[in-house]
Amino acid sequence: MKTLVFIRHGQSVWNSLNLFTGWVDVDLSEQGVQEAQEAGRKIKEAGILFDVAYTSYLKRAIKTCHYVLEESDQLSTPEFKSWRLNERHYGALQGLNKAETAEKYGADQVQLWRRSYDTLPPLLDPSSPESSTHDPKYRYLDKRAIPEGENLKVTLERALPFWNDHIAPSLLKDDVVLVAAHGNSLRALAKHIENISDDDIMALEIPTGQPLVYELNDDLSVAKKYYL
After folding, report:
1. CATH value at residue 88
2. 122: which of 63, 92, 126, 204 fits an S-S bond (Cβ 3.0–4.6 Å)?
3. Domain of residue 130, residue span
């Protein structure tokens, strides 16, 4: 069996405040640090030894990756970062309180923005100072590739090339792979790996800081899936 471990970053400061986060580069909360450390201890207890780790450009995922590797005594594991593993971009919703937004636009509309496969959130104005086009992390990226808002469909389209070019080849050569990323970038990849329908993906929730283990067949189909 080929082994793939997903971990959604530990609780972030904005998770704790119930804010839409997306590409805003917020840090882990104290609880989030503890979640990531506990995830590393669970991985160590399970005897999982990684050959490679992949994470995003956002520090809540990067730090989660580091805590997991540190607590499992695997800090020497080669690590690669990609913007393609970033969280879904929530557009003009970023920074807004989810409950207050539901009061303003209605709970059903906000649920569609949050969970629907192909409904876009209100887009961010590219001229806004909040646009990621102004973030030096993405200075080497074609500005046309930087989103101003994404649904899960677009997030998958963005993440899939990284899966095909890096993660899948690692698995096919029998590397044990860690992907430390975000709720929606991992949901998007899970949709692809598990062949989840557009409707059923709305119900999938990946909790913060809990290692999700996939045991994959030679064709990368799922043989077994479980949380540690």
Report:
1. 3.40.50.1240
2. 92
3. 2-227
**Binding site for substrate: residue ranges?**
8-15, 21-22, 60, 87-90, 98, 114-115, 183-184
Residues 6+ apart with CB under 8 A from 126: 133, 148
Residue 123: DSSP 8-state: P
pTM: 0.95
**Looking up tokens 């590393």, which residue turns up?**
40
Catalytic positions are 9, 87
Query: If you average pLDDT over residues 42-68, what whole number do you get?
Result: 98
Beta bridge partners of residue 227, listed in sequence order = 212
Q: What is the pLDDT of residues 56-66, one digit of tens each?
A: 999 999 999 99
Maximum pairwise Cα distance, the chain: 50
C-alpha 170/C-alpha 164 separation (Å) is 10
